[in-house]
Amino acid sequence: MSSHILEAKNLYKTYNHKLKKLTVLKDVKLSIKKNEVVCIMGPSGAGKSTLLHLLGGLDSPSRGDVFIGGENIYKMRPDKLAALRNVKIGFVFQFYHLFSEFNALENVLLPAVINRDLTSRQADKKARELLSVVGLAKRLNHNPSQLSGGEQQRVVIARALINDPEILFCDEPTGNLDSETGGKILDILIRLNKEKDMTQVLVTHNKQIAQTCNRIINIKDGEII
Ligand SMILES: Nc1ncnc2c1ncn2[C@@H]1O[C@H](COP(=O)(O)OP(=O)(O)O)[C@@H](O)[C@H]1O
Ligand SMILES: [Mg+2]
Question: How many other CB atoms sit within 10 Å of the CB of residue 79?
């Protein structure tokens, strides 16, 4: 078996847009080792979010394969992929995707409730701890509309961590944050990588993050350059 925790082979993504074919990823290959922190950088529209979604099992490629822990994720049964996504993968989305009718604590708890590895008491304790790590111990009962953009981003990070994922995917994790809050997020990411051996794939424009990662992958017009 390959020593890589994450591999993409000859990935293509083509959208059918208004009767025209739009290829937004072309022949992307990459291999990421356990514990690596990789930054994906490139201009707006380059295909960074599309690539991250494909690597994280959230979309399906038009061609090519993605392997997580040696398993071809787009050849798995959908229920198996959903379970893998919930347990092995944490995803920090660019546009949050929090449930608006749930408060911060409930949003963070949800992946643990689905996974059912923890008792509800353990899950509740862990969710509170994570929210306090991201500085939101006093915002547990706030719904997303009652939180600032940066606070919502931190709830998303806490939610991504509740099941101790092996791989964390972040799409512009500091994109909407001031530099102080962005610095705090970066500290959290570095600590998770060191203390939990967490592999991280980060789409970012943040120079500080780019400086601390192990490797930068540049992407332009859907191709790695
Ligand atoms: N569902 C879709 N249908 C058609 N085109 C899309 C769709 N989603 C994304 N695109 C196009 O794919 C390209 C890459 O998008 P994206 O991966 O979001 O770029 P980035 O994250 O690098 O800014 C963009 O040109 C975008 O307009
Ligand atoms: Mg994007």
Answer: 8
